[in-house]
Amino acid sequence: MFKRILLATALGIAALGGIHDANAQQRAICYNCPPEWADWGSQLKMIQSKLGITVPPDNKNSGQAIAALIAEKANPVADVTYLGGIAADPAKDAGVLSPYKPKNWDKIPADLKDPDGNWFTIHSGTLGLFVNKQALGNKPVPQSWADLLKPEYKGLVGYLDPTSAAVGQLGVMAVNLALGGTYENLDAGIKYFKDLQKNQPIVPKQTSYARVISGEIPILLDYDFNAYRGKYTDKSPVEFVIPKEGSVVFPYVMGLTNKGPNAENGKKVLDFVLSDESQAMWGNAYLRPVFAQHLSADAKAKFLPDADYARAKPIDLKKLATAQKVIVDRYNKEVN
Could you list the residue ranges that cross the membrane (predicted)? Predict the structure, then answer.
């Protein structure tokens, strides 16, 4: 009888272990997959529906994701991560990513992926002016970087803090390149933001979509997909402008975490985000899918005309990453 009890107990423990393992196999942890950003919410639901893999939402930003991955390096928690392109090589250099080339990887342009497969682009956004027309009152919608320096826009312009936000650093570089600067010479961009201080800009540290929709920040340097979401999904009186001097296109990337606990599920998630279905979903969320053919005609019709987008040039991720520290240092010393 005692032996039978021991055997039954052992079998029960084994069964529980098997249930735990099965549950673990149906899960993947993604750092920086916030449901309110880029319509990740719909993507996570589709991954659950199509793959049977639960991916809990995660509201980290790129910097926080990399910091967590480094801190957990000896005992990884995440299986995959989503990052702004400026963080791609720093994450690789920190040793927190593992090479994996998902399905359709070969179709991604060479400058939008790591040659060894540590990271790859899934979609991109274009930086410009996210404008709440109603909050401007009778003032015209600005059409250029130069317009923002006019006294009539005093107190109406916002941009994310370049010392803490990647989109803030991108804004400095976008203006710098548009006004004749280079990745190595930031004089034009730093001078612009120094001049903009006279107009008392609003400089938040966190994503400020809701503050534009409410009219608290009438003009924000931000991405096209946020403006289109405001206009077409939230039905707000907003508009997107690509400044006439020019702007930049910024990619978002994903990668497999080094030694993640559910690596095989992580690989399936990475395969999915490059699938035809997922790429079409990104387009319907107003992002440019890395495979342009999956931007539907209906979605494309909501974007500005191609002639406007011709003013936005692809950012050089490696040069931007090299310039990142200089942007922060010079902004702190010369603008703040």
Answer: none
Nearest Cα to Cα of residue 128 among 7, 309, 6: 309
CATH 3.40.190.10 residue ranges of the chain are 28-124+250-300, 126-248+305-335
Strands (E), the chain: 30-31, 80-84, 97-98, 120-132, 157-158, 219-223, 238-241, 247-257, 288-289, 312-314
Torsion sign, CA atoms 213, 219, 222, 225: positive
pLDDT, residue 207, reads 72
State the Cα–Cα distance between residues 154 and 139, nearest whole angstrom: 11
Looking at the chain, the whole-number percentage of residues with pLDDT higher than 70 is 93
**Residue holding tokens 């600005």?**
142
DSSP state of 160: -
pLDDT mean across residues, the chain: 91
Question: Cα(139)–Cα(218) distance, rounded to whole angstroms?
Answer: 11
Question: Which of 11-15, 248-252, 254-258, 317-321 shows the lowest mean pLDDT across its residues?
Answer: 11-15
Q: Provide the CATH topology of domain 28-124+250-300.
A: D-Maltodextrin-Binding Protein; domain 2 (3.40.190)
Structure tokens at 202: 């609003």
What pTM value is reported for the model? 0.84
Residue position matching structure tokens 């790591």: 114
Residue 226 sits at the vertex; the CA angle it makes with 199 and 181, to the nearest 5 degrees, is 50
Q: Are strands 312-314 and 247-257 parallel, antiparallel or unpaired?
A: parallel
